[in-house]
Amino acid sequence: MWEERNKQLYRAFEFKDFRDAFAFMTKVALIAEKMDHHPNWSNVYNKVEIFLCTHDAGDIITAKDEAMAKAIDKLL
Q1: Three-class SS of residue 22?
Q2: For the purposes of burial, counting CB atoms within 10 Å of the CB of 67, is it exposed (0-12), middle (13-18) or buried (19 or more)?
Q3: pLDDT in tens, 26-58
Q4: Which residues touch 61 (CB under 8 Å, ≥6 apart)?
């Protein structure tokens, strides 16, 4: 579930292994390019953390972030 942290939407994901985590990140990257909205994220082995905020709006949560979170959720 997405939660608000420091004016950002945050969610952690855990996968079976690095390969599955990286495949997920690749799919998210394609969504980000299509939406022209890129996440702050990190990956350590099978864990991916994503932070969404709109930099152009002063690093706050906007409808763009909510739309991207929904698109990411559809990948699961």
Answers
A1: helix
A2: middle
A3: 999 999 999 999 999 999 999 999 999 999 999
A4: 4, 7, 8, 9, 52, 53, 54
Q: Per the confidence metrics, is the pTM higher than 0.85?
A: yes
What radius of gyration, in Å, describes the C-alpha atoms of the chain? Answer: 12
15: left (phi over 0), alpha (psi -120 to 50) or beta: beta
Local structure of 24: helix, strand or coil = helix
Query: What is the chain's percent helix, strand, coil content, to nearest 5?
Result: 40, 30, 30
Which domains are seen in the chain, by residue range? 3-74 (3.30.1360.20)
Report residue 48 CA to chain centroid gap.
9
